[in-house]
UniProtKB/TrEMBL annotation, chains A, B:
UniProt entry tagged with the keyword Transcription regulation: yes
UniProt keyword terms in alphabetical order: DNA-binding, Repressor, Transcription, Transcription regulation
Name assigned to this protein: TetR/AcrR family transcriptional regulator C-terminal domain-containing protein
Domain of life: Bacteria
DNA-binding region: 29-48
Keyword Repressor included in the entry's annotation: yes
Organism of this sequence: Allokutzneria multivorans
Pfam families according to UniProt: TetR_C_1, TetR_N
HTH tetR-type domain boundaries: 6-66
Amino acid sequence: MEPRDKVTREKVLAAALTLVEENGIEGLSMRKLAAAVGVEAMSLYNHVPNKDAVIDGVAELVIQRMVLPEPAGDWKADLRALADAFRSSAISHPHAARLLLTRQLVSGGSLAASDAALAALRRAGFSASEAVHALRAVLAFLVGTVLREVESTPAFDGSDLSAVARRRADLSADAFPSLAESAPFLASCDHEREYTYGLDLLLSALESRLNR
Amino acid sequence: MEPRDKVTREKVLAAALTLVEENGIEGLSMRKLAAAVGVEAMSLYNHVPNKDAVIDGVAELVIQRMVLPEPAGDWKADLRALADAFRSSAISHPHAARLLLTRQLVSGGSLAASDAALAALRRAGFSASEAVHALRAVLAFLVGTVLREVESTPAFDGSDLSAVARRRADLSADAFPSLAESAPFLASCDHEREYTYGLDLLLSALESRLNR
DNA sequence: TCCCAGGTACTTACGCTGTAAGTCAAGGGA
DNA sequence: TCCCTTGACTTACAGCGTAAGTACCTGGGA
């Protein structure tokens, strides 16, 4: 009855995910991962071809944990719900989300979400072709915003402050008047709000394109 | 007259950029970089604090090479020109662009571009506050699209083909009808066109928000 | 002229990385 | 019973970033 603690690919990936979330992507090494599953480094290679596969697996794990919302009929609300789901699952694993956003993976996990988004767009009345364009536009925005959001929480070392201070110094030398003018709004960033703003922009543009 | 070949921070960063473009980011090591400059690894530390600073420097180098377009009066055309300039300079250094897009850097190099974009938005009639939101939305989309574009050119190893084939297999099992329906349009991606489509979407939404 | 201070480059070394290669014990099918 | 697969182990190698110490060369003050 001791096969209970047998190493499996799933256990390796789960351990890798927690390791990444605790120590960042840099903190993931095959030796540390092996130690986390209670084994020597080289034993991992019985379950996983190499480190890159581990990283891909971690990224897929995050996607798979995304819970898809039930379609409600209103295509805009449905797209928004899908985007929300994507964003939430990314934000709940900020370090691993970097992987997901940075590498494009042809993972099976994201297929269901893409299908749901395309279904909503088709229901709205877009052609199969334009639905793809719309999906790609929304997805690009989504990746960009979420990336900014997860990157602006860099395990808070105090270096940010000096950087901001330096930026301010550059601004006060008003070679950049428009920048200086907007400085108070640039200084802080409410990610939730920026996300909503941009998504609204895209959805309303899609809607008016539909009525054209 | 032999100070001609003295090592400088600039030469180090320039060599790092070409190294990154030739071999990818993984191919950049302090030893190889030193060899490229004609020096031993540790000598680099006389000009650069550590490897991270080298990477930041490479990213800034790419931004600095971006040529800003002259403002022409039409705010939409101006924003489009700025976006084009950003995209072009990123695409011309695909590997280094990953760095630029992935890390958020408070570099001085991007200040001029941000200022120009904000100026165009202010000229259009946006408030200083909303101009920032608009800029962030466009920038998020820009980062997302360009990231997808530079990542889909992964020094062409043939593994892409098998991945696409696998995706097709998943599709034919029509658990995802909308996906299957759009499969022919998903199979290929004209990056230029997707970029234009999304940017048009955002700009038209901004315009109608302005007239509201 | 001499001398020396400072900066540049070099050498050595440490601990870490991913992984190729070979060994060995346990368990299940013939 | 034997054998053969499977998974874990050990050893080893080449490469990494960089801390620490050393040697040289060059320009300026005495």
